Amino acid sequence: MQMFDWIMSSPQSESDNPSILDSNDSLASFRSAFHIPEKDGKELIYFCGNSLGLQPIAVSQSVQSELNDWATLGVEGHVHASRPWVSYHEQFARSLAALTGSLESEVVAMNALTVNLHLLLVSFYRPTPTRFRIICEEKAFPSDLYALQSQAKLHGLDPTEVIRIVPAGKDTQTIDEHALLQAIREEGPRLALIMIGGVNYYTGQVFDMAALTRAAHDVGAYAGFDLAHAIGNIELHLHGWNVDFAAWCSYKYLNSGPGGVAGAYIHERHARSDELFRLAGWWGTDKAKRFLMEPEFQPIASAESWQLSNAPVLSMAAHKASLDLFDQAGIQNVIAKSRNLTAYAASLLARIAEHPDFNNAFTVITPTQRGAQLSLLFHRNGKAVFDALSRAGVIADWREPNVIRIAPAPLYNTYSEVKEFAVLLEEAVLNEIGEDKNMTQDL
Ligand SMILES: *Cc1c(COP(=O)(O)O)cnc(C)c1O
User: Mean per-residue pLDDT for 98-116?
Assistant: First the structure.
């Protein structure tokens, strides 16, 4: 058993030395802007930023500032807080536009993700007797599928006749993009919209949103994306790609806290239009007239018109602290580091996965079109490996029946942590899977 780390301790080239990679990392200082969870006084290896990002240290001060304004100003804080609450959400437009590749008038921070999906589907899913089909991908996040099913029912339709789920490959677990494009062409004039996760939560597969949008538009359908795993993780050009609508949450790669305020994008051609139906609330109406309390809804000519209620300032204060970090780092730099960090992780994992002594313990199912996530499909005993990693101080994510997801987050994870993880994984695989399984003599 003393041989457990012999693959990971084999000689390294300079480009494979985590200390050198860390010292050359221009974003290294951002780690100190986060609270890193610890166990027994030792920092955990936190690879779960695709599920809940870590807390920026500036969050407490940002929230405290709003609590102070509330304590000292009461209702006057709407106008006289240091960041007036009546327009609090407006300060996110610039950051969210940069993260999503949109115009500022196309994005808004509001509600929660599934709520936003419903609000957008109310606008973009307007089935007719001839055009009523929706395409999504197999292994879409369940909430998204539930949203689509209930929207079909809302229109008195049978979800199984509405929703076409493009299957994932049996071996690869990923979606063949050609099959997706083919399905769009086949549905043709029956297709109302596609709604796809821009990055699949299970495999980490990144979809070609530009190509899917073009294909949907070619048959007269809308293209919408769930960006829960995409925002803050991969390059997005929603406006340039001509995407019709999108929604995301902010607690994954954006680190804005559990249940934090979500966001939505609506292309300006729709956002400006009075024609497109939207559910209305007072926060979506013309700002100049909002407090005149008039009976007629006058939608703001931007994504803001999908807002129903006044802004949840306390959760937005956390969002503010976290988006400030993205503004400082620059999303291009975040993505550049992420590519290197994940490629480094992938190369170490491949050495374990492909080594004959490890007896085909797992396969990395994440394709090369990916963001920060790698999904490891275990062929047996995956849960035992996961539990061993947890005991050793790794916070990763377990997905039934047999997948461990890891997501090294470029703002706070290091190359050294990736290396340490690989050593721990090697040890766990050997202990939990290797034992009785025809290990070679020299082990
Ligand atoms: C995380 C995630 C959700 C969660 O939805 P909430 O409304 O924020 O609870 C939904 N869809 C996808 C694709 C996700 O990744």
Answer: 98
Q: Whose CA is nearest to atom 8 of ligand 1?
A: 113
The CB of 226 under 6 Å from ligand 1? The reply is yes
Rounded to the nearest whole angstrom, what is the distance from the C-alpha of residue 292 to the centroid of ligand 1?
36
Q: Whose CA is nearest to atom 13 of ligand 1?
A: 141
CA distance 246 to 223: 9
Tokens of 364: 């990395």
415 burial type by CB count under 10 A (0-12 exposed, 13-18 middle, 19+ buried): buried
- The predicted structure's pLDDT at residue 433: 86
Helices and strands in the chain, H and E counts? 15, 15
Give residue 435 CA to ligand 1 midpoint distance, Å: 39
Structure tokens at 288: 């100049």
Indicate whether 180 belongs to any domain. yes
Does residue 41 fall inside a structural domain? no
| Same domain membership, residue 336 and residue 323 | no
Whether 185 and 85 share a structural domain? yes
Residue where a domain terminates, one of 329, 364, 394 = 329
**247 and 277 both lie in a single domain:** yes
137 lines ligand 1 (CB under 6 A): no
How many domains are there within the chain? 2
Can you tell me the distance from the alpha carbon of 76 to that of 127, in angstroms, rounded to the nearest whole number?
45
228 Cβ inside 6 Å of ligand 1? yes
388 occurs within a structural domain = yes
Tell me the CA distances in angstroms from 300 to 14, 268, 305, 308, one per residue in order. Answer: 55, 12, 5, 12
Average pLDDT over residues 223-227: 98
Find the domain containing 211 and state its range: 60-329
What is the distance of C-alpha 314 from the center of its chain? 22
**Whole-angstrom distance, CA of residue 374 vs CA of residue 365:** 8
Last residue of a domain, one of 329, 359, 382: 329
At position 105, the amino acid (one-letter code) is S
Q: Over the stretch 278-326, which tens digit does the pLDDT of each residue have? A: 999 999 999 888 888 888 999 999 999 999 999 999 999 999 999 999 9
* CATH number, residue 264: 3.40.640.10
By most ligand atoms within 8 Å of CB, the mutation choice from 51, 117, 119, 143 for ligand 1 is 143
